[in-house]
Design brief:
Elements (H helix, E strand, L loop, with lengths): L1 H5 L2 H26 L14 H4 L5 H28 L6 H25 L27 H8 L1 H9 L12 H19 L11 E7 L12 E2 L7 H9 L1 E6 L7 H10 L10 H4 L10 H7 L3 E6 L8 H8 L3 E4 L17 H14 L4 E6 L20 E2 L8 H27 L4 E7 L21 E8 L7 E6 L2
Parallel strand pairs: 1-6, 1-8, 3-10, 4-5, 4-6
Antiparallel strand pairs: 2-7, 3-9, 8-9
Helix pairs in contact: 2-4, 2-5, 4-5, 6-7, 14-15
Amino acid sequence: LFVGIFRNWRISMGVLFSLATIVMYINTEKMASRNTPFLPEDLAMSGEAGGLASMINLERFLNMLFTISIIIIITIIVNKISKKIWHFKFSKRQKIAIFIPQIALILICAHFLNLHTLEIRNLSGKGTFIKVENLETSIDFTDQAYNYRTNGFILATISNLQTKTQKQPEGYSKEAVQKIVQKYQKIAEENNKNRKKLSDEKVNVVYVMSESFIDPKLGKHLYDYGNKEPIPYTQEIKKSQSSGWAASSEYGGGTANVEFEALTGLSNFFLNSIPYTSIVPANKDTPSIVKNFNENGYKTIAMHPYNRNMYRREVVYPNLGFQEYKSADGFKNNSKIDNSKYISDESAFNEVLAELKNSQKPEFIHLVTMQNHMPYEENAYSEHNFSVNAKNGANPENAKTVQAYLEGISRSDKAMKNFLSEIEKLNEKTIVVFWGDHWPGIYGEMFEKELNKNDIRRTPLFVYSNFEKEKKDLGTSSLI
């Protein structure tokens, strides 16, 4: 393809290697933060590159630029030398002697690219651009990190380009599905006989999906932060209110996938895609809890203090049934803390409070926060209240990143305390459902080693109300 475009195989190789370097850089970034490789479906996010730019790792970005610069320089040198020497008449032996160093340079570039991408999938030297040890393949779409690590980037990417349709089960028909529905309707009716009748009273409901909010004690054996509790109020509220753990389907990112499951009750496991970019925009009939609130006379609002169209939310939210969507450009409360890149949780909570106080109708508000989004930079906050030490094989260089993260969630915890104290003062009955969307990607190198896999999928969950209600142990609850 490139030879046909440039009519020069040397320039074509340079362009190919440069593009491969960019793809490998994107893959490295995604693996470092989420333990998930760069997938073809991620190209749907290319229009949001500007919004993602603030989240990149500067060191790896500079490494990518350096690699591309080397490739460009070598390409220019080889091309100029070739143009000059081919004007002369050489013997066959001389031509071979000239041609071999050029091929050697290309192979060196390829080897350099492969070495540069050793950290692609698990940042521990196992991944390469293409696997050549054997021709056996093992495709597993439920574990893309394994898929790419086992098969190499090229084969795994090709496997993800295929359309994967679910096979029709044996005996499948409309009548068979109706029988299943009727079966569980009878079970539900039987179970509901002994349940208390739900009140018809309409209370405000606020969903708070807190960015990367976890209980850091679950990772304290890797990054010890001493005796000071980073989230004391959250720990306190979990003891007095219905609480437990939210089972997140993602790690280090994928907020929109978690959000999709929480709002629709549908699992993303079988979709093998980002529903917000590939499915919901084209389906206005997507079922959601939002539409249930609409049917009951609620005002429904989505709030997200960031780029309005990130994950195509500008299209997605109306299709899910939201009557209104407030993004960063519509927030009246938009202050940030110190050097943080994102609107603070305190500001986001104040935006919710202002809406609740001014509305004449019961409201369902869905807030997706941004304060604790990556990157976690040492200079983000002026006060440093935690000292972190790496233990049990954790990366010591990552301790400062964990420290910055702890500073962030500590401030989120304080903001939550102030928010709920204001909720308590409202005349209207209000319920707040709070959960963390996923773990931050800072524990990536220990993802499959020291951290319990169940722990790394658990985030704090509680249901708070400003009126008396029964306290329940929610255990570990799916968001579906």
